[in-house]
């Protein structure tokens, strides 16, 4: 049986799902992660639900349906979760050499930003600089994910781009970024740092404990 890890590994190697096929329905990779990834003309749905039920909620031939509100509402109700947002999904290869900016790694596991990151990722590492923060960890289906934050006082100086680029020097693995499409500054920063858009993603988040 194909898994979401298989799909993501193939995409990271440049082998995207076949346009016009699907949707591909796979099990959740973990109790934490359920959702939909839309590649070009091909959707991948990862949820521990009956496949016939999923297909019955999707109009034939409508490639946009899996990321549209009616289907996502059905998933929310069936899974007892909520959609956290619909993000652009981008990917970049690792880079050799030192990062382009000086970073200090946060080693305190009780640091608030470390604790927050661990709600969504495993093997989390966090670095800071004078006006920004960089997080790398294993997220959906074990993929390596990056997130950045820039303080208001540091915006408009290229720091977001530098942090996104630095992440590529801090791991030997392909890096995935989930970016809110409306955050134009973040989109520009990741594109300038060499990340390539490959799709969109909606994750269904469990209710607070």
Q: SSE layout and pairings?
A:
Elements: H1 4-12, E1 24-26, E2 35-39, E3 42-46, H2 51-56, H3 69-79, E4 82-92, E5 104-106, H4 112-117, E6 122-129, E7 132-138, E8 144-150, H5 159-167, E9 175-179, H6 184-192, E10 196-205
Parallel strand pairs: 1-3, 8-9
Antiparallel strand pairs: 2-3, 2-10, 4-9, 4-10, 5-6, 6-7, 7-8
Briefly characterize the structure.
The chain is an alpha+beta fold and 209 residues long.
On the 0 to 100 scale, the average pLDDT is 93
What oligomeric state best describes the polypeptide chains here? single chain
Count the DSSP helices.
Answer: 6
**Order of strands side by side in the largest beta sheet?**
1-3-2-10-4-9-8-7-6-5
Q: What's the gyration radius in Å?
A: 18 Å
Strand content: 25-35%
- Helix and strand element order: HEEEHHEEHEEEHEHE
Distance between the termini: 32 Å
Helix content: 10-25%
> What structural class do you assign from the helix and strand content?
alpha+beta
- Record field, number of beta strands: 10
Describe the structure.
The protein has 209 residues and is of the alpha+beta class. 24% of the residues lie in helices and 31% in strands. The chain is built from 6 helices and 10 strands, in the order αβββααββαβββαβαβ. Strand 8, helix 5 and strand 9 (175-179) form a beta-alpha-beta unit. Helix 5 (159-167) crosses helix 6. It is globular, with a radius of gyration of 18 Å. The protein starts with a helix and ends with a strand. The model has no long low-confidence stretch (mean pLDDT 93).
């Amino acid at each position: 049986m194909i898994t979401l890890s298989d799909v993501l590994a193939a995409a990271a190697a440049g082998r995207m799902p076949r346009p016009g096929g699907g949707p591909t329905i796979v099990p959740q990779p973990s109790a934490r992660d359920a959702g939909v990834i839309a590649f070009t003309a091909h959707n991948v749905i990862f949820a521990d639900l009956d496949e016939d039920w999923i297909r019955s909620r999707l109009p034939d031939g409508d490639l946009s349906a899996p990321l549209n509100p009616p289907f996502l509402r059905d998933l929310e109700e069936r899974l007892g979760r909520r959609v956290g947002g619909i993000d652009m999904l981008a990917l970049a290869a690792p880079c050799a050499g030192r990062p382009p900016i000086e970073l200090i790694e946060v080693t305190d596991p009780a640091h608030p930003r470390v604790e927050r990151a661990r709600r969504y990722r495993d093997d989390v590492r966090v670095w800071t600089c004078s006006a920004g923060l960089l997080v790398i960890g294993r997220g959906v289906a074990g993929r390596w994910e990056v997130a950045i934050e820039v303080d208001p006082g540091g915006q408009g100086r290229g720091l977001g781009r530098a942090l996104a680029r630095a992440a590529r020097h801090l791991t030997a693995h392909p890096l995935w970024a989930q970016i809110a499409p409306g955050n134009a500054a973040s989109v520009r920063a990741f594109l300038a740092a060499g990340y390539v858009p490959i799709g969109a993603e909606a994750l269904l988040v469990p209710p607070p404990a």
